[in-house]
Design a protein that fits this description.
The chain is α/β, with parallel strands linked by helices and about 1150 residues long. The protein starts with a strand and ends with a helix. Helix 1 packs across helix 2 (about 20-30), helix 14 packs parallel to helix 17 and helix 32 packs across helix 33. It is globular.
Length: about 1150
C-alpha cells in the first residue's frame, strides 16, 4: 500500500496483511496517508532473504532460456504512467504469443498492481487467440504457504482482465526447484471474499478495528505499537488464559478492563460463563493488578484435590530427565527439528541435542532421542521425563505413527506415565500473577532473566525458517542454546514445584501423595517378533526414501506399514482410556469429544424392568457437550465398571442407563467413557496371511489374493466385459453395463462411487441378486451393522421381482447386530454360529470385518460387497477381502470419512476408496463406475455439490427439476441460500443462529411444496431438517424449533433427506473453533449436509467464518467450498 503520484496503489501484500489482521490494514493506511509514521524495520537477514529470492528467480529464468523457450522481459518503470506503460508492453507480448513473459506488469489502470515472475503460455483459447497464459511464481521457501496462493489468485485475476479468460491453473517453483500446480477454482471464492471484504473496510477508512492479539503479532512490524495500545487500555486480553469469547461476554455486562474484572463481584457474572470459570478469571485479574501496582511476583496455592495439581508429581529420582522440543508448523505438515534433553549429574545440568532439518533426519533424530531415553530409563527405572505443556507427548505420538518406528517404546512411555507435564501441575496447583502461564513467564519465580538471542518459541521457528533459507550454522547454535535454557528451566521449575507442594501440605494440612506408578503393561512380544520378521521380508531391498521407490516397491512398503495399522489405532484409544480414568468433569466436558460427563440424577424414579431382567433404568441429566455416547456398553471411570446405556437424548439432556437391581444403592455414575479398544487380532491375522503370501510369492504372482494384490497396487480392474484399461463407463451410468462388468470380474475388484441420492444401495442390491442367480456365493459387509442391514433390506425387497431364491445369514455379535427382515417369509436369517455361515448352502452371508477376516472364511466367497467403503480403512478392506475371490466396493469418499485416531505412515491411514482414488475426487472411468445422476437434489442444489465436490460430473434426474418451495418469506424457490448471522464468543452453540432458523421455519411451515412427481402439498415441520456439527447446538436448536423438525449432527443424517435443509455452523469465528478447522469446515460434512436437500439448502453461519485465516493450501480448499456456496446463494 503506497501513494504513487497521489494515487493509493494496492498490491497482493495488502490483501495478505489484511487476512492476518484487519488492524494492520488500518495502521498501514494511516502510514500511506501520512497520518502515522513507522520507523524502518528492514534487517540484514531480511535483505539476505530478498537477495537469495532474487537469485532463485534468476536461476529459474536461466533454466527456462536453456530449455530453448522464447522469453520476453518487461522492464518496470516508476510512477503511475510507468505502471500503465509496463502493462501495455505486457499485453503486447501476450498478443504476440510469447512463450514466457518475465516480470510481466499486471495493472487494472486504477489501483491494483502486480509483477508476476513468469507468465507461461498454454494451449487454451482466450481473447488473445488459441492460447492464453497462466502465472508461475518462484518462491525461496521449500513448501507452499497459504499467502502464496492469495498472491497467485490476485495475479490470475488481473491476468483474466487482460486475456478475457480466467486461468485454470497457477504454479509455484519452490526453493527446492520442485514445481507445484494448483487449480484456481479451489481457492478463488475464498480469494474473492477476502478482496471484497478488504475493499469494504478500506472504503470505510479501515476504522473501527482494534489490535486484538492474533498469531501474526509475533512477527508483525506493529507489535510494539499494538502492545502499548492494549496496555494503555488495560484490555481484558491481558488476563492470563482469557479467551476471546470470554472477553466478548464480559464486555456485554460492562466489564471491559483488567481492573474492572479484578473489582467485580459474583453478581456481575455473565450468564454464559460458568461460576467456577468466572471466579478463576476474577482471581487471576486480581493477582495481575496487584503485581502491576506493587511490582512483586505473587502466587496463590489452590485447594488440593485428589489426583490434581501437586498430586500429579511423581516422587523425584536422581535419574529424572527434562525434555523440550522445537517444531516448525510452517514446514510441510510440520517438522520437529530439535529434541533437547537434560540430565542432572552431580547436581549440574548436562544437555544433549538431537537435530533434524528435513523429514529423513526427523526420523533419525526421533529414533535417537527415544533410544537414549529408553536406555536411560532402563538404568534409572524410577526416573521420569518432565516437560511443560502437552506439545511433547502429542508430537511423539505423531512421529511414531508417521515414521512407523519406536511405537512400542512411545507406548511404554505413555502407558507407564513416564512423561510428566508440569504445565498441568502449575495450572491445577496454583495461580500466578503473570499475564501468561508460558514457561517464560512462570520462570520469573525461580530463575533470572534469559540472555540468549532467541527468546521464545516463536523466535525459534522464525530463526529455523531463516536457517532453511540461509544455511548459516550460527543460527542453529542460537536455537540450541535457547532449547538448552528451556530444559534447564523445566528442571528448576520441577524443583520449585516440589517446594510449593511442601508449602501446600503445611498450609492446607492436606495429604498430597506422590503419583503412584500404574500397573505394569507387557506387550505381546511373540506377535511383535513375528511382525518384525515379516516386515523385514517385505522391505528387503527397499530404500528409505519412499519418493524414490518403484510402484511395486512402494506397494510392498505400504503393506509392511499396514501390518501395524490396528495396533497403531489401538494405542491412542488405550492412552485416552487411561487419561479419562484420571480426568475430572471439567476436562471431560470441555476437552473430550467422546466422553459424557457432569451427570446428575434427573429426579425420575427408577423404572423396574420386568423379569427375568432384574434390572433398573436410571435417568441422568447432562449439560451440553460433544460426545459419542449411544445405546451400548460404556464405563463408569470412578468404578471402572460397565454401564449399559439404553437411550440418550441431546435435546433434553437425558441419558437412561440400565443396572442390576442389587446395585440400587450404589452411587450413580458422574461420567461415562468409551471402554477399551476392540480386539482386532482377527483382522491383524488376516493381514499377516496376505502379507506372508506376498513375501513368499511376490506382488505379481498368480494364485490366492489376486484382488487384494490389485487393490494394494492400485491396478485397473480386470473384467471379461472389456479389456483392462478401457473405459468401464462410456457416458452416463448404466445398471445393465454395471452388471456385466461385475459378473465378468476375474479375481479382481470393482469400485462403484455413489454420490448422495444416486441409488448406490439400489445398484448394489441388484448386482448381488444377479450374482446369486448365477450361483455365486456372496458376502455383504460394512463397517456398521446399520449399513449392512440397509443393503440386506434392499436385496430382500427386490428378490421376489427378480425371481431369485436363496438362503442368507447375518452373523450376530450382540445388541443391535440382529437383522430384522420386513418380509413375512425372509430370505435372510440371523445366526451367532460360525458353522452355519460355513454351510455352503448359505449363498449370502453378511457381517463385519470380525467375520470376514476369520481364517475359516478365507477364500470361501466368490464376491464380497463392502458397503460404505469410504468409511473403511484400507487395512480392514484387505483383511476382509481375504474371504473372497472378487471385491465390489460401494461408497463415496466425499461423504462421511473413516474415523481414525492415530497418525500413520503416508498412505497407511487412508480408506480403501481414498487409496484407489489417489488425487481424484471422482473415480476415473477406467478405474471404476461413477453413478452420475442423483434422484434427490433439484438441479440448483446439485449444481453446487457437483462443482465443489464431484468435478462437475453429477447431474439431477429430470423429474427433480419439478421440486420447489413456494413461500411468502425470504426462503422460496430452489437452490442454496445463505443466512448471515452476526454473533461473537460462540464455540459449540449459537442461540442467535437457532433464533434466525426458527423465524424462517415459522414462515415456511404451510408453504407449497411441489414434489418430483408433480404433486403439490403443504409443507410440514417433518419436511425440514436442521443439521449442525455439534451436539450442544442440537440442544440449542431443539429448545427453539417446533416439534417435528428433524434436528441432529451430520453423521446422524447420512442416507436421509428432506425438502429443506438448514446447516447451522454455530461457531463465531476462527478464534472460537473448538476442535480444528478441518472438522468444522470438512468438505465431506458440508457435502452430506447440503445434499440432504431436495429443494433448498440453507447455510446459517457467522460471516466471520468466511474470513478465517488458513495455515495450509488444504485448509484454504475447505474454506473455499463454503465461500463458493455463499457466492452461488447470492448470485
Amino acid at each position: 500500500m503506497e501513494r504513487v503520484d497521489d494515487r493509493l496503489i494496492l498490491s497482493a501484500s495488502d490483501l495478505i496483511d489484511f487476512l492476518e489482521c484487519p488492524h494492520l490494514t488500518h495502521l498501514d493506511l494511516q502510514v500511506a496517508t501520512g497520518r502515522l509514521k513507522l520507523e524502518a524495520t528492514r534487517t540484514d537477514s531480511a535483505d539476505l532473504v530478498a537477495r537469495k529470492g532474487d537469485e532463485h528467480e534468476l536461476a529459474h529464468l536461466a533454466a527456462i532460456k536453456e530449455a530453448g523457450l522464447d522469453v520476453v522481459t518487461i522492464e518496470s518503470e516508476r510512477g503511475f504512467d510507468g505502471l500503465r506503460r509496463g502493462a501495455d508492453r505486457t499485453l503486447e507480448a501476450m498478443r504476440a504469443g510469447a512463450e514466457v513473459i518475465y516480470q510481466g506488469v499486471l495493472f487494472d489502470g486504477e489501483r491494483w498492481r502486480g509483477h508476476a515472475d513468469f507468465l507461461e503460455r498454454v494451449d487454451r483459447p482466450s481473447g488473445l487467440g488459441s492460447w492464453s497464459y497462466e502465472v508461475a511464481d518462484t518462491k525461496l521457501a521449500r513448501r507452499v504457504k497459504p499467502y502464496f496462493l492469495v498472491q497467485l489468485c490476485f495475479y490470475s485475476q488481473l491476468l483474466e482482465r487482460l486475456q478475457g479468460t480466467a486461468p485454470e491453473w497457477t504454479h509455484v517453483v519452490l526453493g527446492s526447484k520442485a514445481r507445484e500446480s494448483f487449480r484456481l477454482a479451489e481457492f478463488s471464492a475464498y480469494y474473492r471474499r477476502l478482496q471484497d471484504r478488504f475493499l469494504r473496510v478500506l472504503e470505510a477508512g479501515a476504522n473501527g478495528t482494534y489490535p486484538d492479539p492474533v498469531e501474526h503479532c509475533g512477527i508483525c512490524r506493529w507489535s510494539a505499537h499494538c502492545d502499548a495500545r492494549r496496555e494503555a487500555d488495560d484490555h481484558l486480553s491481558l488476563v492470563a488464559n482469557m479467551r476471546r469469547s470470554q472477553v466478548a461476554r464480559l464486555s456485554e455486562v460492562g466489564i471491559t478492563t483488567v481492573t474492572e474484572l479484578a473489582r467485580a463481584n459474583g453478581d456481575q457474572r455473565p450468564a454464559r460463563i460458568g461460576r467456577h470459570t468466572y471466579e478463576a478469571l476474577r482471581e487471576q485479574a486480581t493477582l495481575q493488578v496487584v503485581q502491576r501496582e506493587t511490582g512483586e511476583y505473587r502466587y496463590d496455592l489452590l485447594t488440593p484435590e485428589t489426583g490434581r495439581g501437586f498430586a500429579r508429581l511423581p516422587e523425584p529420582s536422581p535419574g529424572d530427565l527434562f525434555f523440550d522440543m522445537e517444531g516448525d508448523p510452517f514446514f510441510d505438515e510440520g517438522l520437529e527439528y530439535l529434541f533437547g534433553v537434560t540430565t542432572i549429574e552431580d547436581g549440574q545440568p548436562r544437555f544433549r541435542a538431537f537435530w533434524a532439518i528435513d523429514r529423513t533426519e526427523e526420523k533419525r533424530a526421533f529414533e535417537a532421542f527415544i533410544d537414549f531415553t529408553m536406555e536411560h530409563l532402563e538404568r534409572h527405572p524410577a526416573a521420569h521425563v518432565y516437560h511443560y505443556a502437552p506439545y511433547e507427548p502429542t508430537a511423539l505420538k505423531r512421529l511414531m505413527g508417521l515414521h512407523a518406528t519406536r511405537e512400542d517404546e512411545v507406548d511404554h512411555l505413555l502407558r507407564s506415565q513416564k512423561l510428566v507435564d508440569l504445565y498441568a501441575v502449575v495450572r491445577q496447583g496454583l495461580r500466578i500473577s503473570q499475564p501468561s502461564y508460558s514457561i517464560k513467564k512462570v520462570e520469573a519465580f525461580y530463575m533470572p532473566p534469559r540472555e540468549t538471542d532467541v527468546t521464545d518459541g516463536g523466535d525459534s521457528i522464525i530463526e529455523f525458517e531463516r536457517y532453511l533459507d540461509e544455511r548459516d550454522p550460527a543460527i542453529l547454535d542460537a536455537i540450541e542454546r535457547y532449547n538448552e535454557d528451556d530444559c534447564r528451566s523445566t528442571w528448576l521449575l520441577r524443583e520449585w514445584l516440589l517446594e510449593r507442594r511442601t508449602e501446600a501440605i503445611e498450609r492446607f494440612g492436606a495429604d498430597i501423595p506422590f503419583r503412584a506408578p500404574p500397573d505394569p503393561y507387557q506387550p505381546d512380544k511373540e506377535e511383535a517378533a513375528e511382525l518384525d520378521a515379516l516386515r523385514r521380508a517385505l522391505l528387503e531391498g527397499i530404500g528409505d526414501d519412499i519418493d524414490e521407490l518403484t510402484d511395486d516397491e512402494r506397494s510392498r512398503w505400504l503393506l509392511a506399514q499396514l501390518l501395524d495399522y490396528h495396533r497403531r489405532e489401538a494405542k491412542p484409544e488405550w492412552w485416552a482410556y487411561f487419561e479419562r480414568l484420571d480426568a475430572d468433569d471439567e476436562q471431560l466436558i470441555e476437552l473430550d469429544t467422546e466422553a459424557l460427563a457432569g451427570l446428575t440424577d434427573a429426579g425420575i424414579y427408577p423404572e423396574v424392568l420386568p423379569p427375568p431382567s432384574r434390572s433398573l433404568i436410571h435417568t441422568l441429566r447432562f449439560p451440553p457437550q460433544e460426545h459419542k455416547i449411544a445405546p451400548g456398553d460404556f464405563i463408569d471411570p470412578a468404578t471402572k465398571k460397565g454401564v449399559a446405556v439404553e437411550s440418550i437424548d441431546d435435546g433434553t439432556g437425558l441419558v437412561r442407563i440400565r443396572r442390576a437391581a442389587k446395585r440400587r444403592d450404589e452411587p450413580l455414575p458422574r461420567a461415562l467413557i468409551p471402554g477399551q479398544p476392540y480386539d482386532t487380532s482377527c483382522q491383524r491375522a488376516a493381514l499377516r496371511r496376505f502379507a506372508e503370501d506376498v513375501a513368499a510369492h511376490g506382488l505379481q504372482a498368480d494364485g490366492a489374493y489376486q484382488a487384494l494384490r490389485e487393490v494394494l497396487r492400485r491396478q485397473l480392474p480386470r473384467t471379461t466385459a472389456c479389456s483392462q484399461g478401457e473405459s468401464l463407463q462410456s457416458c452416463e451410468f448404466n445398471l445393465e453395463a454395471a452388471t456385466r462388468i461385475a459378473e465378468g470380474l476375474d479375481s479382481s475388484h470393482l469400485f462403484i462411487q455413489g454420490p448422495p441420492g444416486s441409488g448406490k444401495t439400489y445398484t448394489g442390491a441388484h448386482l448381488i441378486l444377479h450374482l446369486l442367480d448365477r450361483g455365486c456365493r456372496v458376502g455383504v459387509a460394512s463397517g456398521s451393522h446399520k449399513a449392512i442391514h440397509k443393503l440386506l433390506e434392499e436385496v430382500e425387497r427386490f428378490a421376489p421381482k427378480a425371481g431369485v431364491s436363496f438362503r442368507g445369514l447375518k452373523k450376530t455379535s450382540g445388541p443391535g447386530s440382529e437383522y430384522s427382515s420386513k418380509l413375512a417369509e425372509p430370505y435372510i436369517d440371523n445366526t451367532a454360529e460360525i458353522d452355519d455361515i460355513l454351510d455352503h448352502d448359505t449363498r449370502l452371508v453378511a457381517g463385519t470385518a470380525w467375520l470376514f477376516a476369520r481364517p475359516e472364511l478365507d477364500g470361501t466367497l466368490d464376491y464380497l460387497f463392502i458397503d460404505e467403503a469410504g468409511q473403511l480403512s484400507l487395512a480392514d478392506a484387505l483383511a476382509m477381502g481375504t474371504a473372497a475371490r472378487n471385491l465390489v466396493l460401494l461408497g463415496d469418499p466425499q461423504q462421511l470419512a473413516q474415523v481414525s485416531q492415530a497418525v500413520h505412515p503416508p498412505g497407511a491411514g487412508a480408506s480403501v476408496l481414498e487409496h484407489l482414488l489417489g488425487e481424484h475426487s471422482t473415480i476415473p472411468p477406467e478405474r471404476g463406475l461413477f453413478i452420475d445422476e442423483t434422484r434427490r437434489m433439484h438441479p440448483d442444489v446439485c449444481r453446487f455439490v457437483s462443482e465443489v465436490v464431484y468435478e462437475g460430473r453429477l447431474e439431477s434426474y429430470a423429474d427433480c427439476a419439478r421440486q420447489r418451495i413456494d413461500a411468502f418469506g425470504e426462503l422460496t424457490g430452489t437452490g442454496v441460500r445463505y443466512l448471515p448471522v452476526e454473533h461473537t464468543g460462540n464455540a459449540r452453540q449459537s442461540p442467535e443462529e437457532a433464533a434466525v432458523i426458527a423465524h424462517h421455519i415459522s414462515d415456511l411451515i404451510g408453504a407449497r411444496y411441489t414434489k418430483a412427481n408433480g404433486e403439490t402439498v403443504e409443507l410440514t415441520a417433518g419436511d425440514i431438517m436442521v443439521v449442525t456439527p455439534y451436539n450442544a447446538q442440537v440442544r440449542c436448536l431443539r429448545a427453539q424449533l417446533p416439534d417435528g423438525v428433524q434436528i441432529g449432527t451430520v453423521d446422524k443424517f447420512q442416507g436421509q433427506q428432506a425438502a429443506i435443509i438448514f446447516f447451522s455452523m454455530a461457531t463465531s469465528s476462527g478464534q472460537e473453533i473448538p476442535r480444528n478447522l478441518e472438522f468444522l469446515f470438512s468438505r465431506n460434512r458440508l457435502n452430506v449436509a447440503v445434499s440432504r436437500a431436495r429443494c433448498l439448502a440453507v447455510l446459517a453461519c457467522s460471516p466471520e467464518l468466511l474470513h478465517i485465516r488458513c495455515r495450509s493450501a488444504d485448509q484454504m480448499r475447505l474454506v473455499n467450498a463454503l465461500c463458493r456456496l455463499v457466492e452461488m446463494a447470492n448470485a
